UniProtKB/TrEMBL annotation:
This is Ras-related protein RABC1. The keyword Transcription regulation does not apply. The keyword GTP-binding applies. CDD domains: Rab18 (cd01863). It comes from Ficus carica (Common fig). SMART domains: ARF, RAB, RAN, RAS, RHO. GO terms for molecular function: GTP binding; GTPase activity. InterPro entries: P-loop_NTPase, Rab, Small_GTP-bd, Small_GTPase. Belongs to the small GTPase superfamily. Rab family. GO terms for cellular component: plasma membrane. It comes from the Eukaryota.
Length: 211
């Protein structure tokens, strides 16, 4: 996957969504992918947003990536962002069992409830493998969950950037192989996913949609 230099032109526009418990590293994963940097970030308030231009298999892609808050109090705000997403990345922390348990208890159910794309590609990501000595969730458990729920699967580290590019590349490649999603993401389609305005939960604390 290469970053595209011609930012004004693209063949496809794909909407991707990051979901999972608070503190699993969704924001740092996104920052690592879009900026090649690592920071310890405070929990996302509502929804954050970044754009990344890449070239995959000769196609210029514009990725609109939405990073949702994991806290329960924001869940009603973020439900609308599932609409029209071609790819959804479920993130858990390999050092925290409850973040893995909540995948089936909460997040898979949210996808079923709110996702409008039947062909939407799902990716399961186990983050923080740099903390191997603290690991509680085994790789086999991740693989088994991914098989059961029909997800792609990778373990990664936003901190060391291990497998970060691969997470997004594998997801995008699968979208490119899915005709219905490809048609939806065509540059000719007039759906403007940037028109979505994040609901303001609290204007004084919200950092929705950072460009």
């Amino acid at each position: 996957m290469e970053s595209s230099s011609q930012r004004g032109e693209f063949d496809y526009l794909f909407k991707l969504l990051l979901i999972g418990d608070s503190g699993v590293g969704k924001s740092t994963l996104l920052l690592s992918f879009t900026s090649n940097t690592f920071e310890d970030l405070s929990p996302t308030i509502g929804v954050d947003f970044k754009v990344k231009h890449v070239t995959v298999k000769g196609k210029k892609l514009k990725l609109a990536i939405w990073d949702t808050a994991g806290q329960e109090r924001f869940r009603t705000l973020t439900s609308s962002y599932y609409r029209g997403a071609q790819g959804i990345i479920m993130v858990y922390d390999v050092t925290r069992r409850e973040t893995f348990t909540n995948l089936s208890d909460i997040w898979a159910k949210e996808i079923d409830l709110y996702s409008t794309n039947l062909d939407c590609i799902k990716m399961l990501v186990g983050n923080k493998v740099d903390r191997e000595s603290e690991r509680i969730v085994s790789k086999k458990e991740g693989i088994d969950f991914a098989r059961e729920y029909g997800c792609l699967f990778l373990e990664c580290s936003a901190k060391t950037r291990e497998n970060v590019e691969q997470c997004f590349e594998e997801l995008v490649l699968k979208i490119l192989e899915t005709p219905s999603l490809l048609a939806e993401g065509s540059a000719g389609v007039k759906n403007n996913i940037f028109k979505e305005k994040p609901p303001q939960s609290d204007a004084s604390t919200s950092r929705c949609c950072s460009w």
